[in-house]
Amino acid sequence: MKIQKAAVIGAGVMGAAIAAQLANAGIPVLLLDIVLPDNPDRNAAAKAGVQRALKARPAAFMDAGRAALIEVGNLEDDLGKLKNVDWILEAIIEKLPAKRDLWEKVEKVAKKTAIISSNSSGIPMHLQIEGRSEEFQRRFVGAHFFNPPRYLHLLEVIPTPKTAPDVLASFSQFAEGVLGKGVVVANDVPGFVANRIGVYGIVRAMYYLQKYGLTPAQADQLTGPVLGRASSATFRTADLSGLDIIYHVANDLGAATPADEDFTLTDTFRALVEEKKWLGDKTGSGFYKKTKDAKGKTVILNLNLDTFEYEDQGRVKVDAVEAVKGQPLAKRVQALYTLEGKEGDFLRGVMNDGFWYAAKMAGTVSGRLQDIDNALKWGFGWEQGPFETMDTLGVQTVIANLEAEGRTLPPLLQAMKDSGREKFYQGAEVVTPAGQPTPYTAPYLILSDLKKDATKVVKKTAGASLLDLGDGVLLLEFHTKMNALGEDAIRMVGTAHKTVQEMGYAGLVIGNQGEHFSAGANLPLILSQAQDEEWDELDAGIKAFQQATTSLRFSPHPVVVAPFNLTLGGGCEMLLHADHVVASAELYTGLVEVGVGLIPGGGGTKEMLLRFTDQITPGQPLLPAVQRAFELIGTAKTSTSALEARKLGFLRPTDTIAMNRDHLITEAKRKVLDLAPDYVQPTPRQDIPVMGDAAIGAIKSALYGMRQGGYITDYDLVVSNDLARILSGGVGNNRTAKVSEQHLLDLEREAFLTLAGKKGTQDRINHMLKTGKPLRN
């Protein structure tokens, strides 16, 4: 059942975006849609879908070139092409007769081994395939993507009673490993998992919002990042999703579920949709409304639920939220759950309803508690699912609160009360929906689980840890804010190498499972040392960082770096020096130091020059390689995916791109074990060709034109001149010189120190720290 080619039927917003994600994964895909009346191009609908995906923001394609993997067609002329595909997914209109009619046609042409799927979010899967053959039904499995498919990790896989176990297993493996999705196996019930529980939470939050007289902005402060949930929280999420969508889904679920689940919408919510037609972002008005003030600045107005007027409430702050900011998630959740006043009453109502409903749904929407937790984390951006949150609070504490409110406990919570168990997850066990402990092993390495075994923590400091991954592989993990690379983290690199050698490890992985791999250097420290003129300390810090990055390449054991999300500045320099990189497909990496008036000082400038000159055919001019490195670094170019990072040169053709970020550490560990048996320690290069003043002249000529055209600032010129000197090799008018890596590193360090002492650089760093945006001085 290997899926080598796929077909998506329906080129609307969702269908085209799913086709794009298949193309991102390297899967050729046939995209079919109807023939539009009165349009001479019979494939116009499918073509429009591809164009929509190409223009989508955020981008649907990781590399626009991947659109070439999509073949367009129509359902009248090209249905026969389905005989050549291994997986067929429909994403057409949400009407049961239309889906049944489609499946009747598909069965006549699809090959007998193809897996068949529906992306329906509401129509039960078993109803769609009534009347189809037993063979068709056994190969049918629901595949509910969340929008946008590239960025939302969740994929609900929904077998019917007729789905063959091997089909379910094969498709789930493909979805997780090839498409990079977080797979949750859901039961074929109304709403499946995420929407069933998530929409219930939004409906109940609306009820408590009005009961306790909070504003949507106050409620979002309480149910957003402070609670470990998405920044869009509850009511901003509703606006983004579309109030009409929530309205219809809630009504449908209310009609399809028992009365005690209460999907009843408040009169105010109904009025927003039915009378005002305020549907959220799609109409410009919902719980919030964007407008501009007299100066043209964007202002977010908040809906007054009593008057239906929009009000400028300024920046809304909730004192209880401000009081716990900066604390670990567990402490924040515990503090907010016991909060007094109307904010506490609102939050406990929302949380307790969520806990009660998740427990009630255990066994109904899915047979595993971890699938319910994962559905909320992957589909709605929560850090913890409902059962994990109850573990944080103590399950017996939650049960006591629910009983104090007069609630009847769902069977799962009654079983937990009877057993006295405080956690759903305990050691290597998780309870079943019946409340019985069962062994649980994740299919990939989860560092937080690993660290529960104290023997796996080899060494730990405030900024970094060394963990034993098993099988002779050591992990270096950063855990500072944004994983910025300060003195602590840099020192731990040396400690890691020493530990590998002294304790007989096969090699080293550098990675983590935080929000980002690393946002780069510790800018506050650099600014402080420069302003205090602590030049010796700053010079020593740069040397230490250069030694740390280069040691990744020249140690006696293999080093594999596993970057993901933001991997900037010093983080990028780490991946550049690895023996091998296992990168997440969602990799936003670049050498961005010029934005703060510096140059890459940890070997990044050297490495890009070396890589690009190595690509020049012997006898050909070096200038294109120098210009390429200059443009990449001088414009602070950042990749928007790992595919683009490979094109830009940050990743090599031999480096690995993993679609599923969850698998990075596991794949990096496997790569270390592959490299270790035959690993030969490299030696630093002594033969890097440089152009001297000829390169500087060419770059300065281009810079002059850019400055005259207003494309760069005066201080951009200052930084660019120092960058040009490094890329020229700093060897005067010698056009045939060859220099060592250490020579280029010394030039980097000198330029870094010189620039750090300039007011223009210090102004840029200060502005970045205060605003998060670069200063154009």
TrEMBL record:
Domain 3-hydroxyacyl-CoA dehydrogenase NAD binding: 5-188
One Pfam family cited in the UniProt record for this chain: 3HCDH_N
Known pathway: Lipid metabolism; fatty acid beta-oxidation
GO molecular function: (3S)-3-hydroxyacyl-CoA dehydrogenase (NAD+) activity; NAD+ binding
Residues in coiled coil: none
Protein keywords: Fatty acid metabolism, Lipid degradation, Lipid metabolism, NAD, Oxidoreductase
Organism superkingdom: Bacteria
Residue span, 3-hydroxyacyl-CoA dehydrogenase C-terminal domain: 191-289
Any one biological process term the GO annotation gives: lipid catabolic process
Catalytic reactions on record: a (3S)-3-hydroxyacyl-CoA + NAD(+) = a 3-oxoacyl-CoA + NADH + H(+)
Name of this chain's protein: 3-hydroxyacyl-CoA dehydrogenase
Organism: Deinococcus ruber
